[in-house]
C-alpha cells in the first residue's frame, strides 16, 4: 500500500474565535465528514459537515462561526463502511475520550501558570526520581487528603497522617526527591470514566492502555464530562509541584494503544501499527505495537511530546517499553526537547514486552544506549543484583544472600559504576510499580531473616541505589516499607487493576518505620551534597571511581567498597563507601588518613557521626549495612 506522508502538515483542529479549521490525514478515505455534537458523550448530533480532500491524503474543513465548547468526531468512509472516531490529535475530549472538544486552551491556564517554570536540573544525574500513581498516593484514609485520587489532590500542600507526620507534597519535600514520575496520566481506556464518576473508587488501573496521548485522563478530573476540567486540573497539579520545587515526569506509552479499532486505524488503516502477514505484531505484549519508524507516526509521537512538554510545562518523560520504538525517533525527540528546554529528562525501559517486528539493530534498547543521545535506560543489573531477580520471587541478591560469591559482586560493581556508559544514561533502582515491592521481595527471598534483618537489607539496598553512579529512582512508599498484600496474605506482584486495599500507600508506616524514612532522607541529602556521587560522563567515572581490591578489604567476602576522588582537583574530598552484606560485622584494614564517618549502621545524612582516629588499624562495618567515610 502506498501512503503519501505529509510530515509537515499541521493536523488537528484549530480554534480561532469566529473560525475553526479541521485537518485530518486519512489517505485511503473515500469521504470524511465532521460530526458536530452538543456534548462529549450522548446528546444530539447537531450537524454533519463534509470535508474537502486536499493533497497527500489530507482532508480539510473550515467553519466560519464560533464553535467553541462543541465536540466533534470524524466519520471516515472507506469501501462502503463508515467509521467514526475522535481526532487523533485531540487536545481535549469528552467523557471516555470518544469525541474531541473544540477548545481554547488558553482558558485552562490558572493564575500564575504563565510564570510557572520547570525545576532547575543542571544535569540529569542531579535528579532523584520518585514514581507514583495519582490514586495510590492520596487515597488511603490515613493520607490526610480531602480530595482523594484526583489531579487536584496534588494542590493540597499541608496534608498530614493521623499521627501528625507530613504526607503528600510535604512528605516529598521532606524526603528530598527532585522529580515525581507519574504513572500514566494521559487519557487511558481501562477505567470507565462515566461509571467512575457515578460510583467513585470502584475501578483502578495503572493506565498502560492509551486512548488519547495528548489529553489527561478523565477519571483523575473532578468532571470528566467537561473537556476543560482535566486539562485545567493537571496544570494545577504541575503548578503546585513546581511551586514546591518538584519536577513532573509523565510516563508515556507510545509502544501500543488500548485497541487497534481506534482513531489511528480508522483514519489511516494499515499505517500506524506494525504488521506481518496481515496480523498485528506484538512487541508490547499488549496485542499491537506502534510503527514509530514510519514518518507520519514519528511525526505524531514527536509532536505529541512537544505539545505535552510545552502546554503542561512537564520536566521529563519516561518511555514504556522503549525498545519497541526506534533509535532515530528517540533521538529526534531529544533534539526537539532540547529546543524547548535541555533540562527535560528522557528515560525508558530498554526492552520489549514481546517479540517485536522492528529490526533489533534500530531498536531503542538498553544494548544501544550509546547510540541514544542523552536518553537513559533502566539498569536491571543493579535492580536484580542487589536483591534478586524480579521474575523469580524467592531468588535473593547481594543484600539477602551473603553466601554468594564473586560473580554477583563483580556484576554489581559494573552496575554501580554506571554500566560502562555515561551515568546520566542509567536509571538506578531496586523497585518500581512492576513486580514485588522491595519489602515484599525481601520477605519472600529472605524468609528466615528477622524483621530487623530485613529492615537492614532494605536500607542497604537503598544505599546501593542512592550511592551509585547514575540517576536514582524509587517506587513511592519504598521509604515506608510499602507492601502490596492481597486479602489472603500473599503479595501482589502485578497490581495493575488491584483495589486500593492492595495499592494504597499506608502513611502510618511513616511513624512505624520512622528510622527507615530518616535513612532514605539522609542518603538523599548526602547524595545532593556530594558532587562526586553525581558524575555525568564515563570519562569522569573512569577518572574518579575505583573499587577497593580484595587486599584492601582484607579478603572479606560479600563486601563491595569504592573510593571516589577527583585527581584533577588537588584539594577535593575523597569518599569511601563500604557495603557489607554479611549477617555479621566485618573488620577490615582501616584506610590511611583522617576520616569523618557520615553513614553508619542505620544513620545517614550530612552530620558527622564520628571521626576515625588517624592511628586506627581496623575499621568495623556493622552487619548488613553501608558505611561511608569522607576525608578530612
Ligand atoms: Ca480515560
Task: Output the strand order for the largest sheet.
Answer: 10-11-14-17-18-19-20-21
From the N-terminal CA to the C-terminal CA, the straight-line distance is: 70 Å
- Gross geometry: elongated
What ligands can be seen in this structure?
A: calcium ion
Helix-strand category? alpha/beta
Q: Would you count the extended β strands for me? A: 29
What order do the helices and strands come in, and which of them pair?
Blueprint: E1 12-16, E2 19-25, E3 31-37, E4 45-50, E5 52-53, E6 58-63, E7 71-78, E8 81-85, E9 100-101, E10 129-132, H1 134-138, H2 168-175, E11 179-182, E12 186-188, H3 193-198, E13 210-216, H4 227-243, E14 247-252, H5 263-267, E15 275-276, E16 279-280, H6 295-312, E17 316-319, H7 327-340, E18 345-348, E19 376-378, H8 380-387, H9 406-416, E20 426-428, H10 438-445, H11 451-466, E21 471-475, H12 500-503, H13 509-512, H14 514-529, H15 538-544, E22 545-547, E23 559-565, E24 574-580, E25 586-589, E26 595-599, E27 610-612, E28 618-621, E29 625-631
Parallel strand pairs: 10-11, 10-21, 11-14, 14-17, 17-18, 18-19, 19-20, 20-21
Antiparallel strand pairs: 1-2, 2-6, 3-4, 3-7, 5-6, 7-8, 7-9, 12-13, 15-16, 22-23, 23-24, 24-29, 25-28, 26-27, 26-29
This protein binds calcium ion.
How is this structure best described in words?
This protein is elongated. The protein has 632 residues and is α/β, with parallel strands linked by helices. The model has no long low-confidence stretch (mean pLDDT 96). The chain has 15 helices and 29 strands. Helix content is 23%, strand content 21%. It has an eight-stranded parallel beta barrel. The structure holds calcium ion. The site of calcium ion has 9 residues, from strand 12.
